[in-house]
Amino acid sequence: MTGEYATVVGNASALPVFTPPPTPTPRPDFEMTYAGMDSCVGWWLEFKLKNIGPFPFKSYSIVVKDITTSTTLTASDNGFTDMDGCLASGIIASLDSGKSYTLSGPIFAYNPNNHQIKATIALCTENGLGGQCVNHTLEFKP
Q1: Fewest Cβ atoms closer than 10 Å to its Cβ: which of 26, 35, 81, 126?
Q2: pTM reported for the whole predicted model
């Protein structure tokens, strides 16, 4: 009946009641890729991070394992640092939704080129690894 409202006649209690499903709660998330290796006094791996969730990330933890030598390095901090050789570094306080940034990993005392690497990064929505945290792991050879 176009243009008219329907009217229920009779007992409406037998009609099913539609309850819409709850709106999904948005979750933090990110993408990570290996972005290269840099050096100065030591060598470090760099990771491109892209925030694909609705919340900014404010802290991180990284574990980099050189499977070839059984060496494990870790680091964590508030904010994100991109070291650029010996000359400069960039630092941001938060990785905002939709933004990308290169994170420099912990420093190896040797060149890990062509070694099997396993890197796990946790990004958290609050400083001090607080709030909601998301982990991603990547295996590769630099």
Answers
A1: 26
A2: 0.83
